[in-house]
Fold this sequence. Notes:
The structure is a homodimer of 220-residue chains.
Chain A: H1 8-22, E1 30-31, H2 33-40, H3 44-56, E2 60-63, E3 67-70, H4 75-99, H5 102-120, H6 126-142, H7 147-159, H8 161-171, H9 175-193, H10 197-209, H11 211-219
Helix pairs in contact in A: 1-3, 4-7, 4-10, 4-11, 5-6, 5-9, 8-11, 9-10
Chain A binds a DNA duplex (30 and 30 nucleotides) through residues 1-2, 7-9, 32-34, 42-46, 48, 64-68.
Amino acid sequence: MTTSTKNTAAKILETLTDDILEGSYLPGEKLHIKTLKERYEVGTSPLREALSQLIAKDLVVSENQKGFYVSEISIDDLEDIYQARAKIEALCIEMAIEKGDDYWEANCLAAMYKLNKSSTSASVDLKEWQKRHSAFHSDLVAGCASPRLLQIRQSLFEKSTRYRNLWLKENVTNADTLGLNQQEHTALLNLALERDAKGAAQLVEAHILTPVEIIKKALT
Amino acid sequence: MTTSTKNTAAKILETLTDDILEGSYLPGEKLHIKTLKERYEVGTSPLREALSQLIAKDLVVSENQKGFYVSEISIDDLEDIYQARAKIEALCIEMAIEKGDDYWEANCLAAMYKLNKSSTSASVDLKEWQKRHSAFHSDLVAGCASPRLLQIRQSLFEKSTRYRNLWLKENVTNADTLGLNQQEHTALLNLALERDAKGAAQLVEAHILTPVEIIKKALT
DNA sequence: TATTTAAATAATGTCGACATTTTACAATTA
DNA sequence: TAATTGTAAAATGTCGACATTATTTAAATA
């Protein structure tokens, strides 16, 4: 019996995505059909449907008759993804500042307030901070009101997750880094409310590129 | 026997994609599993794998236990896709002009030459013109050297195809439109070679948005 | 010993059958 | 007549079996 409204393929897609992003399967690792079937207790069809969608997400690659593999990571790919993310984020912010209304402004303020609370508290709850950080940036770009651009942004964010996790493991407990980070968020919000589109775009582009050098070191 | 290196799922994905983009299946039309199996002479698994990837491409939507449908089109969607395309194209051109080398310049020149030949000839071969037009713009943005951005650009281009076909049916034979179009291409190439990144970005953004109003009319 | 060939083992990809769910239709009731 | 219930038909989604292809292992040859 299926209690959920999702079919098996959709459920396993979600699980597999998380497992790959969290590092349960390493870059380049082979995904054996038989093993996956046993581990997730599903049949061939829904499993292969999920893998098909993971290929579309660039998290898995496959070759005919040779099976499925977790996509490799590399410094080149890291740089390309973050560069693309930075440019798209800048573009979205720019459009949001041009189009955003009072509700957008209010949402950004509220998101900032929540993020501040999470950053300044004595013991930082990593998961909660991540959630509020992500929400702050999402609320900022939401004003651009372009479903397609926001979808592209989301997809790039997901693609960067395996690299981002390398950064989080090193730098979240670092209070200095977190403080500097928070200063940038404040500055970014101010630029947005002042409707300085170019300024905000420039800042957010740099903001996103910040972790790249650190991740590069972690990769080598 | 499989003469091709592709598996059944990959082959049928290609066919189905083309058929949807060309209008063999209309927006909102239901895609019956049984019918598709008979038409393309394939089994359930590869067919469903292909449909899974079409969902990832936003060309098909599905609901659990209710089957697959061709994605709807709408004026809102048309505007969003073309807006996103225009912004991404502008971004790519800007980066290409900042990074492009001699080979890039030469490729753009060659592409322009071929496009010109195809546009000025007495009887325009639509398919050939499309190919050269597409190649010209691709060569221009190729200089940005970002696989991810180029992939996003390609995917948006594909998503716009059903709308673009509405435009092509109306305006390709129109000599005036084609002439104006060609003037823009020349101007764009000049800006690129002069390394006027902002100017080229602005022009290409407008260039892409040109057909929107015409398509809007065709949609209503 | 290194290389080639052949057999065996294992894995992938495809199919049709079956269980479950939705939809269409007819019968019943208010 | 309209709404509701119950039944039949059709469609979806899942599974395990099977054919095909790749890989590994062992044997044979140079």
